[in-house]
Amino acid sequence: MAGPGLLIDAAMEGRPARFAAAANGAWTAVRRHRIILFVTMALCVLAGVVFILLSTPDYRATASVEVEDVPAGAAGAAAAQRQATPSDNEALMQTELEVLRSRALAEDVARELALVGSRTFFDGMDVRRPERGAGSLSQRQVETEMVVNLLRDNLHVELPGKSRVIRIGFTSANAVLSARVANSYADSLIRADLKRGFESGVQARRFLLGELDGARKDLERAERDLAVYAANAGVMAPPESNDGDSPPPEGTTATRLAQLNAFRAQATADRIAAQKRWESARLSSVETLPEVLNNGAMQQIMTERAQARAQVVQERQFRKDAHPEMREARARLAALDDQAEGMANTIRASFKEQFDVAVHGEKQIQSEIAKVERQAQAERGRGVQMSILERQVDTYRLLHDSLLQRYRDMASQAGFQAGRIQPLDRAAVPSRPSSPNIGVTMLFASLGGLILGLMAVAGRHIFDDAVTSADTLAERINLPLLGAVPAGEKPAAEIFAPMASALLLGSAAGLPRSILVTSAQEGEGKSSTLYALAKALAKLDKRVLVIDADMRRPKQHSLFGIAPTRGISELMTGQAKMDEVIVDSGVPGVSLLPCGAIPPSPAELLVTPAMDSLLATVRERYDTVLIDAPPVLGLSDACLLASKAQVTLLVVEWGRNHHGGLRVAVDRLRRAGGAIIGAILTKQEGRPFEYDYHRGG
């Protein structure tokens, strides 16, 4: 059993062999269909020559411009802008390319060069100038449309690499016209860029002027609203120098509120003191009140009352209660008691009155404080609204001043801004035509013809079902290949030696006693093949009889160089005997039974018993009989002879017979009773035998 290494070596060795076989097969297909390849190449080259002869020479002139990142500002000062990114640069260049290809720029070029109505332009573009209008369009409108379309169709715009240079080319049959149009395109692009810059500046100034007017109106409205509100509220705006930290002026609500808060504290303290005095007077004895004790009148009454009480006590020691003096002393004491009580009640009532006055005073102060607080809150609201209006005025004033300064700057820069696109090279009048390029055209025509020819050869080879190898012969008609004869005028004799040796094994008894040699179509080389096989068998010491049964176009007598007068046709009709018509061919071991006279109906002679008798007789004298029969397709002679011969040998021309017709021929022979032992390929192109050692094993 072979190891893995041997299998790998065999595979490696088989690759070059298979590649060589594939290359050889491709070369064989090309050589076989070389007429198709040569004709296709010749037609393509001829088409290239015709194209060159019929083409009008075109001249291309090219101008170039440079696109800058940011145009120069006023007085050459660069405007402060953000750094451009690669994507921004690419977008900028693509935008300029689209501007170049735009219809507006083409119309500008047409106006500048007065191309509408110019016969020179139409002659240079090799088109016919319109002579009338079309539909609702006038003749000039149609001509203008044609000029614009011609300019746009023949414009060539290029971006060399990643540079900022644009090449503007124009192609026409007039070299001077090409240069003029290319330069006009460059000039129009520069003017369009300057115009866009100027118009954008005008629009910006116009926009700023509108914004400035709006800001001025807003500022006036804000100042008017502030003044109206201040007048309606009866307040004055604080001066701009007031920072908010200075104390409020005298007489303001804040000062009054502070004073009232101090008064409320004092009133509360007075009310608490009066309340304490009143509570003390109401709950305790009147005589014990300090105010009563410290009162001079009350002290005098109390002294007199003490004296009167002392007198009553003294009088009671000596007199009874009914005594007049006792009654008078008691009356006087009661009067003093009433007087003291009345005075104490008066003092107590004064405490109550003081308390009520303190409470009322505190309430009045609180009411005044609430009123002032409401007034202060209203003043704070008015102050907030005043601050809002003041800030609105400041904002509009700042916006107005900023827009005014920006407008002044743009107005000062107007007319000084440079364009983004700058001229680089002017288009020169070309001295040589740009097309047609003879060398390039012929090269492409030749390469195109070669490619188309190879494609045609490949298609023909792929879809060609002609027999070209032993594999196709076995696949399509199920016949073994006995050998192949290379294409040439006279193949070497040693080529047929292996075929003769193969015939020695054609039957179980060895060499078949009778072999019919035929082909599907005429002209495939069956007669010459039979002639060569007879000579090869004779060299193997075999006695061979060649019967020329092709009584329609006999060739064996000419191949052997004999001019007989009688043959198989006379033998079949009984006009001659066998020994009289069989002649020596001149080749040792080979005898010939020629055709003789060509009969009007060969098939009728072949079906007679005389043919069977002839074959039975000659089998005893010769080792084998080679019968040359007509082609199978279109005639019945070969089928009749196949039923009488022991085996049949089919001659197939390489690359001519297709599987459909060849299969029909084989089927007809087999239905007639013929035993086909194999086929011989004739006129083979390439190597006679192609065998892959590694593939075959």
UniProtKB/TrEMBL annotation:
GO terms for molecular function: ATP binding; non-membrane spanning protein tyrosine kinase activity. CDD domains: BY-kinase. It is found in: Cell inner membrane. Pfam families: AAA_31, Wzz. Keywords: ATP-binding, Cell inner membrane, Cell membrane, Coiled coil, Kinase, Membrane, Nucleotide-binding, Transferase, Transmembrane, Transmembrane helix, Tyrosine-protein kinase. It catalyses: L-tyrosyl-[protein] + ATP = O-phospho-L-tyrosyl-[protein] + ADP + H(+). Residues 515-644 form the AAA domain. One of its GO terms (cellular component) is plasma membrane. It is a multi-pass membrane protein. The chain crosses the membrane at residues 35-54. Residues 205-232, 326-382 form a coiled coil. Its EC number is 2.7.10.2. Residues 29-113 form the Polysaccharide chain length determinant N-terminal domain. PANTHER family: FERRIC ENTEROBACTIN TRANSPORT PROTEIN FEPE, TYROSINE-PROTEIN KINASE. Belongs to the CpsD/CapB family. Belongs to the etk/wzc family. This is non-specific protein-tyrosine kinase. It comes from Sphingobium indicum.
